[in-house]
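User: Hey, my collaborator sent me this sequence without any context and asked if I could get a structure. I don't really work with proteins. Can you help?
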Amino acid sequence: VETVCGVPADNIRRAARMYAGAGTSAILYTMGITQHTTGVDNVKSTANLAMLCGNVGVEGGGVNPLRGQNNVQGACDMGALPNVYTGYQQVANDEARAKFEKAWGVALSAQPGLTIVDAMDAAHEGSVKALYVMGENPMLSDPDISHVEEALKRLDLLIVQDILPGETTKLAHVVLPAACFAEKEGTFSNTERRVQRVRKAVEAPGQARADWEIIAGISEKMGYPMQYTSAEDIMNEIRALTPSYAGIAYNRIDKTGLQWPCLTEDHPGTKFLHKDRFTRGLGLFSAIEYRPPAEEPDKDYPFVLTTGRVLYHYHTGTMSRLSKGMTERCPESLVEVNPADAEKLGIVDGGSVRISSRRGSVTAKTLITDRVAPGVVFMNFHFREAAVNLVTNPVFDPVAKIPEYKVCAVRLEAA
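Assistant: No problem. I've predicted the 3D structure and written it out in structure-token form, which is a compact way to encode the shape of the chain:
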């Protein structure tokens, strides 16, 4: 472990003893855990550790994901995944599917849909003819964006629904202006499963509308009218079809949120999961074997590139780069290089470097810093002018289908 991770074995032992001996300990993880081809195994490993030390089913314990943006939890709860309906009810489950077919009055497929990566591959191959993209900017955020661009250009129809223009809207056949969080009613669900109200503060500008209004309007034009008059109407349908949300009515979350599962209108919500027992009865330990990244350094590409965020910008920068203050603090993308590597390569702080992989290359200025280890370079993905996802590897975890943004092999040279 010391050799692979570069962390001294004594430090690992000390951290393990601190965690195991603390009484109650919580694990909070971010995308440094999940954005690997072994992301699911990494999360299972944290669950193994938490169960082994008695830190599941207790207040202040557990394994807690910190997602990349607000309401990822809520989106997943509502079935924004290819294999589930709301409340993680499986599309392959005959009973669950029959319930939704009856409520919606349509026949539903028992086959899971496509992930984002799968959809891009299918568009590239021609088996997907149209994409409807909401609140995403895959032309900057997806791995190997040269492949993404080719895929999107091959579509017969690309619809992008968003609050601001970005790289993906430039390729769209249709752009639908959406309302931002302050311009609509609804709920957000956070990482502790707390469902909270979002209230409209101002009117949306121009022709912008709430997402649900746009979808309902298109649906009606296509011959399937949706009988919603408000976001609360939709919440009531969610409650009727989703047992874990059944008790979460608008009047109950007017001042404070509720944590699911909340099974009835007098249920107090669930502060933490697995208090008395696991859903399956006993906890399940997973046997995990180490697997290396899909792409490791070699003589042609001797460095590991890892990507991520910086404090001053949000995702692909379509919002945060409009902020004068944040742009002044972080005006451009930088390649972070360890001082020892910079000296070997003759790279100077603030100099221009080209970072290349088997998929492409990008040029940016350097930041010489010991925040990165020797042999590792870091870039953020906020800037279209230095789009690091031209370089990243479009391989993904076989279960979660999350791309391996955290590891790919690159070459570094002065530009």
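In plain terms: Residues 39-52 form the longest helix (14 residues). You can pass these tokens on to your collaborator as they are.
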